[in-house]
Amino acid sequence: MDELKVFTGNAHPELAKEVVDYLGISLGKSEVFQFSNENIFVRILENVRERDTFVIQPLCRPVSNNLVELLIMIDALKRASAKRITAVVPYYGYGRTDKKDQPRVPITARLIADLLTVAGANRLLTADLHAAQIQGFFNIPVDELTALNLLANYFKGKNLDDLVVVATDIGITKRARDLAEKLNAPLAIMEKRRIGNDDQAETLNVIGAVKNMTALTVDDEIDTAGSLVNVVETLIKNGAKEVYACCTHPIFSGPAMQKIDSCPVKEVVVTNTVPVKDGERPGKMTVLSMAPLLGEAIHRIHTGMSIGAMFE
Q1: How far apart are CA 54 and CA 52, in angstroms?
Q2: Which structural domain, as residue segments, surrounds residue 71?
Q3: Same domain, 179 and 269
Q4: Which segments of 120-172 does DSSP mark as H helices, in order?
Q5: Which of 38, 66, 214, 276 has the lowest tally of Cβ within 10 angstroms?
Q6: Which residue numbers are catalytic?
Q7: 155 and 185 belong to one structural domain
Q8: pLDDT tens digits for 26-44?
């Protein structure tokens, strides 16, 4: 483990500290800050020559700053002769722009992949990508972790009666089905339609039985919480007696926290792939730590062990 070095930018230093605590090592020393002209400066403050290096940096708010920090840190490590550089990106920003669904629009998820590779990343470690095809945008190895086991174990401990797992849209069906299988519960699917490019969606119908059942909605991320509120209200109108929600990435843009606090959802369970400040957290929210999962994955990458075996 002496050859292993873990660094972090300013996106989520709390998560990085938890990861190195799990690994039993110290966080790598570096300077990462902005000059008054908003140019970002990075300096690695210890020897990384021929070392196995990892940079933990989710692409969360402020997304552009955190992305550029990550790229510059990778470049600094490459020019300091690091043997291998793994970008640890628990939340892959721009992941929702993964295809051309309108004329003359970019595929930004592919652009980010190219930027990371050109900067010098030799490997990507991430969690619950918005679309599995994003792995194919990279010409370097990609290890995608999932929080499904973490979420499933939490809800197993609650012993909820008459549970039904609800996919919040058609695209998340496979992940919801996997969670339903782990919880030995049936599956229902919400049919919804996204309206334009303004983060609004209209919930149209529930496919499956939810009447007199405890519903658990599953999604990869909660952004503005507009979809979540619509789904919860629709499930209750269709006879669900209680609604719980879970996701991997708690983005919570704009008034998302207030929407969650005022809607009739019983509990929202998320992970800490992006920072959620204690003071801003609604009382009905539970945050599970991804640090042991990320730490174990880093250990296995460093020692040449299987990542897939973690989920078998």
Answers
A1: 7
A2: 4-146+291-311
A3: yes
A4: 148-158
A5: 38
A6: 192
A7: yes
A8: 999 999 999 999 999 999 9
